[in-house]
Structure formats: C-alpha cells, structure tokens
Design a protein that fits this description.
Length: 300
Amino acid sequence: MNQALELTTHLLVATLLAAKLVDVVLGAKLRSRFLQQLVAEPGARVRFYRNFILSSWIMAAFVPAIAFASADLSAADLGWAWPGGDGLDYLLASYVLLVIGVGGLRARSRMRRGHTFAARAGTAALVPQNARERRLAILVSVTAGITEEAVFRGLLIGVGTQLYHLPLALVALASLALFVAAHAYQGRRGMLGITLVGSLFTAVYLLSGSLLLAIVVHLCQDLVALLLVPAYPTVPQTTISARTGTETETGAGTEAGAGTEAGTADEAAGNAQDAPVPKTDAVAAQPATALPGVRAPFPG
C-alpha cells in the first residue's frame, strides 16, 4: 500500500511538471497569435480569463492530491501554516506591498501624461477594457495569487526539499525559473519583470514559511497590473487658437475599459473668438497599432 501511494505521488509530481512544461512551450510558441486574438476577436479576453481560472484551479488540485498520497509531506511542508518569521516576514511583505502600490500609482500617472513603458506594451492586450472584463480580472488576480503560490512556491519547494531531499537554494531557483517560464507569453521584457516579482514572492515565502503573505502580495501585484495601470499611454493632442495662433496641448487616450477620453486645456468659455480650433484630432492608443515611441502589443 505504501509503495503504491509513493508511486502515485511520483506520478502526480511528474504529471504536474510535464503539464507546466507543455504550457511553457505553447505559451512561448503561440504568443504572437495569442495576443492578436485578444485584440481582434470580440470576447477573446473573456475566454482567456475564464480558461486561465479553470486551468489554474485544475493545476492547483495537484497540491492536495500529492499531499494525500505522500506520507512524507504535511500541510506545513507545503506552506499551509501561519507565518513564522518573527515579524521580519510581515515587514518584508509590507515593504513589497508599498513598492507595488507606489510603483503602480507612478506608472499610472506617467502613462496618463504620455510616457511609455516598453514592457507594458507587450502585455497591454491582457488588460481588461470594460466592466465585465474588470470583474473577471479580479477573479483572475485572486486565482493567480492562490494557485500559483500554492504550486510554484508551496508544492514545488516542499516536494523538492522534503520528498527528494534537494538543497533548498536549488529548489527555490528551479521553482522561480519555472514560474518565470510559465509567463513566456508576456515576452522577454515581461519575463524580466516576472523574475523580479517572483524573487520577492519567493523571499517572502521562505522567510515566513507560509504561503499566506506571499498570496496577499501576489494578489495585490496582479490587481495593480490589471486594474490600476492603464493598458496604453495617453497621447498629447495639439490644438491651435483661431485668433492668436498659439498651440495648446491636451490629453486624450484610453484607459483599460474607459474608452477614449478627449480633453481641452483652453477653457475661455463665453468668448467665441478665442475658441480653440482643433489642429489635429485626439490620438488614442489603439490596441493593434503602435503609437509613436511605443512598441506594438505583439510582434510582426
């Protein structure tokens, strides 16, 4: 009986790793087509969100299955325990949350003033663009925060150290590498960002010995990325006064789900002679077209 359970455990671990590797290969190979579908096909983003939620929880089901089959793994070995880092874990988690929040607000502010981020251009198609998609994006964030931490941090590190007796540093680096590779669909620049935040998630988990803080930090990171930071920057609009010939720049652009916003900086109300006459139309960032200085959301 014990040998059967042990064999089952190894088969479950091998199946999970194989599934993750297949996901990595497909994500990297089909990235361009995948992002084009998100932009071009109505409802594609909703389908992506739903498929992600379903597939993530299916993968997460391996965690209790492996824990049940193995006599060498406990819930605590897989990270399901209260944080025990003597306060340093809470301090680190709070610092990471502060960095995420401030960074998100700064990125939002700069993009609304027309600044561009090359890494954002590569993932902009993933950002929700209406109320329905934003509601699903919240579920995506919660799902990713729980399931990815349970699999990549809790399960893989626990199995590697407790079941296969590998060095903690080696297992932590391997789980981080697989976590980064699983986000290959975000492109090279996106994967650099994933490496940074994934390292922070791993540090929080290893310091606390618990998934709880890592889940909270991960969830908040995804909420900021999907709901706080706009998909595309605001592009300045130039207007010219009919009387003075002076030019005024205003902002027009799109935020995820907010549509095109056009504004004017010249509000000389009641003076028809000084009413600004548009020189150029408001230029809003379009998902499938590269803006000046912005790389297209997908290559080719």
